[in-house]
Write a structure and sequence with these properties.
Helices cover about 45% and strands about 20% of the residues. The protein folds into two domains: about 160 residues, 2-Layer Sandwich (Ribosomal Protein S5, domain 2); about 130 residues, GHMP kinase, C-terminal domain (Alpha-Beta Plaits, 2-Layer Sandwich). Strands 1, 2, 3, 4 and 5 form a five-stranded antiparallel sheet that branches.
């Protein structure tokens, strides 16, 4: 038994901002993927995954009782498959901000949910919001609190535009220019980040009026502008807004940036060779980079591996 593949995702814009109703743009990233498997595999990865699935199944049983009108699962089939050694075989790195738990949630919903909403239906806004709510409740098992966006992206394998918390839609992004010099890339920080502590720091900071005003007047403003520029293919304006956004994050979200990247972050803003931003909640994992000249960025970031996600 091998299930369909579910891909990782990248939140291009909107980290932290979407908690406060900024726009956001999330795209599937097919480089990493995962699938449910039930072959004989005695590796440590398969054993750990199977153990985690046991806990998840118990959590879903509870969820079904608490939210009886929201979602129900074929728990018998799920528990039988887990007892027979089912695991989630995934190349998606954990704690890297590319949606490892999201892909697992999407895979479990796809196989075991009763009356599931399928991607072949006419996906109205109501259906998208319902899916997002279901996925948020399911993914809370892994994160404590989840928006449900990562699993939604993985499940649909489509770019998702977040207009506000209760207004989301699938969208299309300008096709890549494979000959272009510009690129969006991932930079590996070499350390794992954990979502919950980072969100905790953000929520604490939000108690200060000055920080709240900065989020509203600068962070959300530049994030929204970046989303609009990216979707309309306005590269010149996009890089102007990216510079501002990178600056705001550097000034106000320092704890989320691994310390060894502080200097590289600043260097990008000063030289305009590239701009860095958080990928997910930060604290480790990947850092997102944007450049109008990939070769220049590679030279400036020598010694770091750049993983290209999108070409301008």
């Amino acid at each position: 038994m091998k299930g369909p593949l579910f891909y990782s995702k990248i939140l291009l814009f909107g980290e932290y901002g979407i908690i406060k109703d900024s726009k956001g743009l999330s795209i599937p990233y097919n480089f990493f993927k995962g699938a449910l498997k039930r072959d004989k595999n005695d590796s440590e990865m398969a054993r750990n995954s199977n153990k985690s699935l046991k806990g998840f199944a118990a959590y879903l049983k509870n969820l079904e009782q608490e939210e009886e009108n929201l979602v129900s699962f074929d728990l018998e089939a799920l528990e039988t498959d887990i007892a027979n050694g089912m695991y989630f075989d995934s190349s998606i790195p954990q704690g890297y901000g590319v949606g490892s738990s999201g892909a697992l949630v999407a895979a479990i919903y796809d196989r075991y949910a009763n009356d599931k909403i399928t991607i072949l239906e006419n996906l109205t806004r109501e259906k998208l919001l319902l899916l997002k709510k279901i996925f948020g409740k399911m993914e809370s098992f892994f994160h404590g609190k989840s928006s449900g966006l990562d699993p939604l992206n993985s499940y649909l394998s489509l770019p998702i535009l977040i207009n506000s918390q209760d207004n989301i839609e699938s969208t299309s992004i300008p096709s890549q220019n494979t000959e272009g010099k510009g690129a969006v890339f991932l930079l590996d920080s070499g350390i794992t980040g954990e979502t919950a502590p980072m969100v905790q720091i953000f929520m604490e900071k939000m108690k200060q009026e000055g920080f709240r005003n900065m989020v509203k007047d600068q962070f959300v403003k530049h994030t929204d502008a970046c989303v609009e520029d990216f979707l309309s293919g306005n590269v010149k304006s996009l890089f102007g807004n990216l510079k501002q956004l990178s600056h705001v994050v550097f000034d106000h979200f320092k704890p989320m940036i691994p310390s060894k990247f502080h200097q590289l972050w600043q260097q990008g803003i000063e030289t305009n060779d590239y701009y860095l931003k958080l990928c997910g909640s930060g604290g480790g994992g990947y850092i997102l980079g944007f450049t109008q000249d990939l070769e220049k960025a590679k030279t400036a970031l020598k010694g770091h591996k750049l993983e290209v996600v999108y070409n301008f």
